[in-house]
């Protein structure tokens, strides 16, 4: 059972994700879009969407720091476990609440504003369920373990396990003692990763950073192949 | 000097009767699909009026076009690159459907299924957004021909700029129609606003297009375009715009709107321009100098040095020849009667307009004067401040002098031709009064009044090895073509029913051996 949960499933989901993204990019660039609903309703979106997205960027940054940077590294540069913990709890809780609140605003809007609801596909509903579950479980784990409880150091278990996945030597024993709540969060996160390429979430990979360095006006040849002349 | 060719359109507003044939045929050809019900690549609005979408010309509110910084550099009014990216999660300046209108259909089923009753059954309007009964409160030309009167037309942002005393009289004074398509600007602010770089200007003919495969639906272009001629397809999540009917013009046919224009008021021709001079001209300090600045980037296709430079730039001989015969060149530069729409937006628009003289003539006639007599007309152009001020706000950033000059030329042409029509000898002094020769006057008259199809539309075909596929595009279903804004027939993941194998969504099947 542990092998399936902590080795087979992660790899299956990563594989689905990678192949799915490649397939989508190759065969469905026309469907690659945010499919914004701002045209229907703008007032609520202007609050909910930035709250959710900026919160999520912070959350992702926090995950990258917590999961990918080994504990010994942060301790080596002089950040004590206690300092790190305080920072993580504070930033994690604030950004987590921001993200979840933003998502709540967006979901309420999606269900209550009729044109928006009418433009929502089954695919979207499914994706929102997985996304909301992941975020809620994540926030719950942070709040419960670190503020109400006496703190759980995932950097001793979850982080090395995830790194072991990437190093192709999955150390499944590390996950056995992790609290159920956190285990569930990890599993839904991998589920989210697996459905990602087949939902509107793909727009996350369109972050238009090239805009910052590109000339304002783009020129192209008629055949669409030639590069800009200017 | 870097010579580039640009397809330009000129519309003679005196001839527009507001029949909306251009809008309807354009819609049938391009936006007759779900997701773009509200999109009118071509629309005809009544001036004074709020336009479509409502009050789009109020750039304080909608933030379209460019602004010139104190250091003389241009940046999109809605903000530069960094600001655009920071507001990417919710575009603060996006018009919603309320500013366009809520598309609707009718409950036709009820007409057939209604049981026998005392009253004739009525088809209720149903909102296409909610699927529920709705009350229709606005549409693309709700204020057509000043419908709604003062209450609606007073929302016109242009009217707000002319003084209050003349505003009260406008209703008695004048009204005209303004057909609008995408301006295919030399300095397009929509392209500048696109974070994905999906909007591009074609090197060959200057047509501005959206790459449907690169558009990610950030909606910044809708804000960036001061003419609000980019529409967001809410089904596919991609932006769409007027394509200048590129599948047609590539084989030498005029756009659908021009082809079907009942008044024959549209002209299509090439303009050669110096691409290197555009940025500087668009950054001219004073708004009122922008009209002259834009004219200064146009290159005389008869000038041998320009012809040589055009050849060096790879422009084909038949394109240079077409530029020399271009009605756009004649109307913009030779006769100086066409003006750009809102040069103050600094996008260097390429659909130009001959301002209407009719309001002046009508006002004269209403006061019992001879509306065709030159002295009367000249006097009236100067005396009737209302139309001139208003037209100047539309076409010359508020400077009345160029508008007056155009109206005087049109007035002179009327008077000159009337003498000929009545069998009197032509009066050269009339032509000289507006700085033209009698010969020029006649040529201008022919172009404006009786020009044939081939003179109104001088469109060189595209040079391509795939001419036959272009033919198929122009005559087949325009929506199915790759790269077209429609591609209505194309299936993506969002519109796939999950059963069949739509082309393009899967790798081609290997033939069984």
Structural class of chain B: alpha+beta
Average residue pLDDT of chain A:
90
β-strand amount of chain A? under 5%
pLDDT below 50 for ≥5 consecutive residues: which ranges of chain B? 465-470, 475-488
Strand order of the largest sheet of chain B: 13-12-1-15-14
Q: What distance lies between the first and last C-alpha atoms of chain B, to the nearest angstrom?
A: 59 Å
Task: Using the coordinates shown, work out and report the CATH topology of chain A.
Answer: Fumarate Reductase Cytochrome B subunit
Distance between the termini of chain A: 59 Å
Dominant shape of chain A: globular
* CATH architecture tag of chain A: Up-down Bundle
Q: Provide the helix percentage of chain B.
A: 25-40%
Helix coverage percent of chain A = 55-70%
Taken as a percent bin, the fraction of beta residues of chain B is 5-15%
Shape of chain B: globular
C-alpha-based Rg of chain A, rounded: 20 Å
Number of domains of chain A: 1
| Major β-sheet annotation of chain A | none
Tally the beta strands of chain B.
15
GO biological process, one term (chain B): nitrate metabolic process
GO cellular component, one term (chain B): nitrate reductase complex
InterPro entries (chain B): 4Fe4S_Fe-S-bd, Nitr_red_bet_C, Nitr_red_bet_C_sf, NO3_Rdtase_bsu
Subcellular location (chain B): Cell envelope
């Amino acid at each position: 059972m542990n092998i399936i949960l902590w080795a087979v499933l992660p790899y299956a989901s990563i594989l689905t994700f990678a192949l799915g993204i490649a397939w989508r990019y190759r065969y469905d660039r026309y469907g690659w879009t945010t499919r914004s609903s701002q045209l229907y309703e703008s007032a609520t979106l202007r609050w909910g969407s930035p709250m959710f997205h900026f919160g999520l960027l912070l959350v992702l940054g926090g995950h990258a720091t917590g999961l990918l940077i080994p504990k010994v590294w942060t301790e080596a540069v002089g950040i004590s476990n206690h300092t790190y913990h305080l920072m993580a709890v504070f930033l994690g809780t604030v950004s987590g609440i921001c993200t979840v609140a933003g998502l709540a605003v967006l979901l309420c809007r999606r269900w209550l504003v009729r044109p928006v609801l009418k433009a929502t596909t089954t695919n979207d509903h499914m994706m929102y369920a997985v996304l909301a579950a992941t975020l809620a479980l994540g926030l719950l784990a942070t709040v419960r373990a670190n503020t109400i409880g006496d703190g759980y150091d995932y950097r001793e278990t979850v982080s090395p396990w995830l790194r072991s996945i990437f190093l192709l030597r999955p150390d499944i024993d590390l996950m056995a003692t992790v609290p159920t709540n956190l285990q569930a969060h990890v599993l839904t996160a991998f589920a989210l990763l697996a459905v990602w390429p087949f939902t509107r979430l793909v727009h996350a990979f369109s972050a238009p950073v090239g805009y910052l360095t590109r000339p304002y006006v783009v020129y192209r040849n008629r055949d669409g192949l030639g590069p800009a002349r200017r | 000097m870097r010579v580039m060719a640009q397809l330009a359109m000129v519309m003679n507003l005196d001839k527009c009767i507001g029949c909306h044939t251009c809008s309807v045929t354009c819609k049938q050809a391009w936006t007759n699909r779900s997701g773009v019900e509200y999109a009118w690549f071509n629309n005809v609005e009544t001036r004074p009026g709020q336009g479509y979408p409502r009050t789009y010309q109020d750039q304080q509110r909608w933030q379209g076009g460019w602004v010139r910084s104190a250091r003389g550099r241009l940046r999109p009014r809605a903000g530069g690159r960094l600001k655009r990216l920071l507001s990417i999660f919710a575009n603060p300046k996006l018009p919603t459907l309320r500013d366009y209108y809520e598309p609707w259909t009718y409950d036709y089923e009820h007409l057939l299924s209604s049981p026998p009753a005392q009253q004739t059954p009525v088809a209720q309007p149903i909102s296409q957004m909610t699927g529920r009964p709705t009350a229709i409160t606005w549409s693309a030309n709700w204020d057509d021909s000043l419908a709604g009167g003062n209450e609606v037309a007073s929302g016109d942002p242009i009217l707000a700029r002319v003084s209050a005393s003349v505003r009260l009289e406008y209703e008695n004074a004048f009204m005209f129609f303004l057909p609008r398509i995408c301006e295919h600007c030399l300095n397009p602010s929509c392209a500048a606003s696109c974070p994905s770089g999906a909007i591009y200007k074609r090197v060959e003919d200057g047509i501005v297009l959206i790459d449907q495969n690169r558009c990610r639906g950030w909606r910044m272009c809708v804000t960036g375009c001061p003419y609000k001629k980019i529409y967001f397809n809410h089904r596919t999540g991609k932006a769409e715009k007027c394509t200048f009917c590129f599948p047609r013009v590539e084989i030498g046919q005029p756009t659908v709107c021009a082809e079907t224009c009942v008044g024959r008021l549209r002209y299509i021709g090439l303009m050669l321009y110096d691409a290197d001079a555009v940025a500087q001209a668009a950054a001219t300090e004073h708004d009122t100098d922008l009209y002259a600045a834009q004219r200064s980037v146009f290159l005389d296709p008869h000038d041998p040095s320009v012809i040589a430079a055009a050849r060096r730039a790879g422009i084909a001989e038949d394109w240079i020849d077409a530029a020399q015969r271009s009605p756009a060149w004649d109307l913009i530069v030779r006769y100086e009667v066409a003006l750009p729409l809102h040069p103050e937006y600094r996008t260097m628009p390429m659909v130009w307009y001959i301002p209407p003289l009719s309001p002046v003539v009508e006002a004269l006639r209403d006061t019992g004067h001879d509306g065709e007599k030159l002295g009367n007309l000249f006097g009236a152009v100067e005396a009737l401040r209302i139309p001139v001020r208003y037209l100047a706000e539309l076409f010359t950033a508020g400077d009345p002098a160029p508008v007056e000059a155009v109206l005087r030329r049109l007035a002179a042409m009327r008077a000159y031709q009337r003498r000929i029509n009545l069998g009197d000898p032509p009066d050269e002094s009339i032509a000289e009064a507006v700085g033209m020769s009698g010969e020029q006057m006649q040529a201008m008259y022919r172009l404006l009044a009786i020009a044939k199809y081939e003179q109104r539309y001088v469109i060189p075909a595209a040079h391509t090895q795939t001419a036959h596929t272009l033919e198929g595009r122009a005559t087949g279903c325009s929506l199915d073509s790759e790269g077209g804004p429609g591609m209505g027939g194309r299936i993506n993941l969002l519109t796939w029913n999950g059963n069949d194998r739509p082309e393009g969504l899967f790798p081609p099947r290997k033939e069984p051996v």
